[in-house]
Amino acid sequence: MTDLTGLLADLEAESAEVDALVAPLSADQWQRPTPAAGWTVAHQVAHLAWTDRQALLAATNPGGFAEALNQALANPTGFVDEAAEAGAQLPPAELLADWRSVRGELLTALRAVPAGDKLPWFGPPMSVASMATARIMETWAHGQDLADTFGIHRQPTARLRHVAHIGVRTLGFSFQINGSEPPSEPVRVELTGPDGTLWTWGPADAANRVSGPALDFCQLVTQRRHRDDLRLLVSGEVADRWLAVAQAFAGPPGAGRKAGEFA
């Protein structure tokens, strides 16, 4: 059974770590371009605040979320950028305060969702645990963009396990959004956590295998590093094809990063 209390505590901690990256910045630094094309620091935080607000709507006001979903469907390729652009126009202090407020409300709302309920989303409905895991993944990924913007090395934590988990769970999705049938062959994933603990998914005897540092795998599935720059060992044709398209986040295929961009 999922430890929801621990999961939500990890979401709170991940958000606080990203908050600490941007809180000391000057107004000019909030306008600095990040590795995401066309997005400044302000766009990154605005996106996190907007997505947390959509999750809050899903947990507390399904009708309001349905309206937001219809608006997104009317502009499926541009609604995310438009929301980030709108939020980025706020003064930095106001934007940061907004994100702090909405993410706090989200944690409270997720704790109150009745056990077993599913939350509507832009894809299939999600359990509270899946929603919290997805929010950890996205918060961590955008935090990586912010850290890269300022050349900051973040100390990896055990929270990476949540990012890795959703990276493994989205294997089939990664093939589908790139126009391929999800493979029937299983893939064994063996990752070394920051403290040396081995994290595993899939059958131990699977012919297709991926292994290496958890940080590297998380950077790959969130498309924050190019595969050539990572220390991942791959065997098997299915595993090799998966790592070429791996994507833990929703939406159309991402462009990823260029090889050597952060060498």
Automatic annotation (TrEMBL):
Domain tRNA wybutosine-synthesis span(s) in chain numbering: 183-228
Domain named Mycothiol-dependent maleylpyruvate isomerase metal-binding: residues: 11-147
A Pfam family per the record: Wyosine_form
Protein's name in the database: TIGR03084 family protein
A GO MF label: metal ion binding
